[in-house]
Fold this sequence. Notes:
alpha+beta; Ribosomal Protein S8, Chain: A, domain 1; three-stranded antiparallel sheet; two-stranded antiparallel ribbon; flat
Amino acid sequence: GxxxxxxxxxxxxxxxxxxxxxxxxxVWSCQNCYHVFHLNCIKKWARSPASQAEDGNxxxxxxxxxxxxxxxxxxxxxxxxxxxNPEWNRNEIPHSCGELCGKKRPCLDCPHLCNIxxxxxxxxxxxxxxxxxxxxxxxxxxxxxxxxxxxxxxxxCGNTLNCGKHSCTQVCHSGKCSxxxxxxxxxxxxxxxxxxxxxxxxxxxxxxxxxFSCQNICGKKLNCGRHNCxxxxxxxxxxxxxxxxxxxxxxxxxxTPLSKLLELGCVERKICTDPIPSCGxxxxxxxxxxxxxxxxxxxxxxxxGDCRPCSHxxxxxxxxGFKKKVRIWRGGFFFLIAAITFMCDKRCxxxxxxxxxxxxxxxxxxxxHKCSLVCGRKLNCGLHRCExxxxxxxxxxxxxxxxxxxxxxxxxxxxxxxxxCGTQPPECKKTxxxxxxxxxxxxxxxxxxxxCPPCTYLTQKWCMGKHEVICQSLTLPYVELYSTHTEQLxxxxxxxxxxxLLNVGDCSPCVTCCPSFQSFSLKSWYVIRILFCIxxxxxxxxxxxxxxxxxxxxxxxxLGDSVEISRLITKKEMKQARLQCDEECLAIQRNRxxxxxxxxxxxxxxxxxxxSGPKYSDLLKEDARKDIKFVxxxxxxxxxxxxxxxxxxxxxxxxxxxxxxxxxxxxxHELAQIYGIESVSYDNEPKRNVVITAVKGKSICPSNTxxxxxxxxxxxxxxxxxxxxxxxxxxxxxxxxxxxxxEEPVIDxxxxxx
Length: 754
C-alpha cells in the first residue's frame, strides 16, 4: 500500500539517482526487496564495478538488499512480468498492466496463485482454507492456506521406531521419531563375554554365532575333539584341526612330502595326535629377527613347534649413531626393543632454536632443536614476563591492558582507557602537590616519581665557626672531619692522619677555609662538622639551581610572563652581568627624549620607523646565509599562510613542518615572531617538528623579507680584496697566510620556544 501511494503521487525516489520516479518513466523492481528503480539507472549500476559481487562470479548486487543477480534487466515490464512497456492508465496503478497478478505466493505449500491486480511489493497471504492433518496423522483441522504453523494433537504418536520392534511413546510431535532407547544383551562369537547395546543400533546385528568379537582366543573344541581353536574370537564356524592326517602332507620343515617318508619306512599317521615324521634336514625357516637385507634362518633339525631363538650376534648403534654395542639375536621382538631403548650418554651441545640455551638432550636425534623452555624475559612494560616459548629477537609487546583511568599524582592529567600495560603516567604542568620535608616554595612540576627533586631554595646560614654568612641550599654537600683522641694516637700520628671527608660527592674541598682553623686545640678535638664548598664547584652548583628554577617557569615564559630571578643572584653579580649599551640603545634613548619633548605618543610612528620593515637579528642572518633555500621556502610558506587566513573565513589556519634539527626549528620560531605567527614544537627527538598557526588580524606579512634583506646586503658589500702571499723564511716553517680563528659555537641552553 505504501509503494502504491508513493508511486501514484510521484513521491517515490530512485536509490541510484535520488530522483523522483515518474508515472511514465520505465522502471525495474527487485524481486527480493521489491524496491523500484529507474530502468536506465539500474542498467548503469549493474555495469559499474561497485555493483559486482565479492566473489566476482555471482553477477551484480541490488543497491538496496545486496541480493546478487546474474542477468542485467533490459526491458520495461509490469510488476507481474506479463506485459512489456505497459501504458499508464489514470485508473490503474502506475507501471502495472491492470490484470490479475497470477504470481506464485512465497509460501512453499500454497498451490494457489495471487488473485489481486498487478501490484508492486510482495503478494499478500492466501485467503483460502484447507484441511491439514496433525504430525502423527491421527486428527485433521481446517486452517488458512499457507499457514506455516504445525498442527499437534494430544494423542500418543505410536509410530514404529527404527528397531522395527517397538513403538514411539511420545505425544504427537514434529519430525522423525527418536531412536529406540531400550537396551538388549549381546554375546560374543566365542560365547565367553556379554555386553548391552541400544535396540536397533548397528551393533545389534548378529550372524547366528554371536554379535561381536571379544578379541580373546576362541578356545572352542575343533572337529577332532582333541585340540582347541587358537584363533582370535571370530564369526562363523572354526576351521578344521591343522594336524589331521588328511590336512598334513609334508614334514614339519616343509621340505619333504610325507609320501616320500612313508616309502623310507616311516609309520603312517592315523589320528591328529600322531607325531609328524621328521626328514632329518636342517629346518631353515626364516626367523623373525632378520630383515630384508639379512635373513637369519633356524639351524635346528626338522622339528615341530616354534623355532629356537637366533644365536647370531650383531652390532647395534645408538639413536644418534655415536656408540655401538654387540648384541646376541634373541628374536625380532628383542631386537626391536633394543633398537628403541639403547641410547648413549652423550649430550648434544648444539644451540636450540632460541639461540640462548643448549640442547643437552641425551643421544639426540633432533634436527630442529626447538627450545621447549618458556622465554621468561621481561616485556616492555617492565611488569610482566614473556610467556611464549623461548625465541630469538625481541619479545612482543605486553598484551595486557588496563581499563582504569591513568592519572598523574594530582589528578589533573588523565589518560582514558584502554591503557596499554607499562604506560607511564601523563605529564602534568601543575605545581607538585606532594608533601615536602621543608616549607619552602615549590618550583618543580607534578611528577610520577615517589621522591621529589631536591629543594633548590637558597637560605642564609652561619658557618660552623660563626665567622660569615653563606648562601646554602639544603642539598649542598657537607664534610665531616673525624679524628682520634690525641691521648690514644699522639700528636704526630694525629697530624699525619689528617682528616677523613664524608658525603662530599665529587667535591674535594679544602679543610682550612676557616680562618680560625689553626687556633683549635687538638687535644679537645672529637667530632667537628663544617659546611663549605670550593668556589668553582659552588658556582657550577649555583647556576644549576638557577637553571632548574627558571626551567620550572618555562610555561610562564612561553605565555609572555616574566620570572623574578633577583633572589637567585646578588647585587654585585647583577652589576657584573648587566649588558653595556650599544649604539642602538643610545638611538632609542635619544628618540624617547625627543618624543617626550614634542609630546608625541609612543604608539604613533611619525618617522615611519616601524613601517620601514622588520629588524632581523645578526644571528638569524648568519643562520640564513648558511641555508638560504631553506629560509626562502619557510618565508614563502608563512606568507601564503598569512594571506590565506586574512582573506578566508576562518580566524586561524595552521601548517605542520616535517621533523628537522634544532637550528632549523630556531629559525622558524624567530621568523614566526616577525610574521606574528604562533609556533609550537611537538614530539621528541629525532621526530621533533614545528607547527605554526596564523591568526586573522594579528599575523602580517613584512614588507622586506629576510631573503630580500640578505640579497641587498650582498649587493652593497664591496668585492673581497685579493690575497697576497708573503715571502717567508723557509726555516721558520710558518706561512704568510694566517688561518682564520675558529668561532666558538653559540649554545642556547634555554630554547624557550622549542
